[in-house]
């Protein structure tokens, strides 16, 4: 079976703007944007692989991608920092003004370097705990929606309520436990119970 030859990626499939240095051995997929703002520099080392639609934007300093690093499709790297040698950045990961060590793996969809969500409670400040009022408000709302049978509907026959059996204590059996045990018995026939 003959496969069609691989087409070399030309410069027309990706966009380069500003002070960008690219090693000739870099593999760049279509749709990649390589941009360096004024007074910034973007360096891409040998053997780097940049996936489709990835954006590398150097701003306020030097952004360096070292030898053998892999950036997944849709990865976004903004600011200054360093992607270490042989690091692997997963698809759709965002790296903002921070560095990734050599050989480190960043999972897909990760967000690194975003400090906007950190809460800083120092000094005389107190942290509010809205969880308890919110939970009680949700409980009150749920309690209000539960309707109880009203005596507004008179029934024609008055049968005395039949005595019911006392409620049984809750069982300790977990739903699906039997099926899980059967599955484990088939997958691991020689396993021994720890209990």
Write structural notes for this entry:
This protein is of the alpha/beta class. It has a domain at 11-106: UDP N-Acetylglucosamine Acyltransferase, domain 1, CATH 2.160.10. The chain is built from two helices and 13 strands; from the N terminus they run E-E-E-E-E-E-E-E-E-E-E-E-E-H-H. It has helices spanning 131-145, 177-187; strands at residues 15-17, 20-22, 27-28, 33-36, 41-44, 49-50, 55-65, 70-71, 76-83, 88-89, 94-96, 105-106, 111-112. The radius of gyration is 31 Å and the shape is elongated.
List the helices and strands and how they pair.
Layout: E1 15-17, E2 20-22, E3 27-28, E4 33-36, E5 41-44, E6 49-50, E7 55-65, E8 70-71, E9 76-83, E10 88-89, E11 94-96, E12 105-106, E13 111-112, H1 131-145, H2 177-187
Parallel strand pairs: 1-4, 2-5, 3-6, 4-7, 5-7, 6-8, 7-9, 8-10, 9-11, 10-12, 11-13
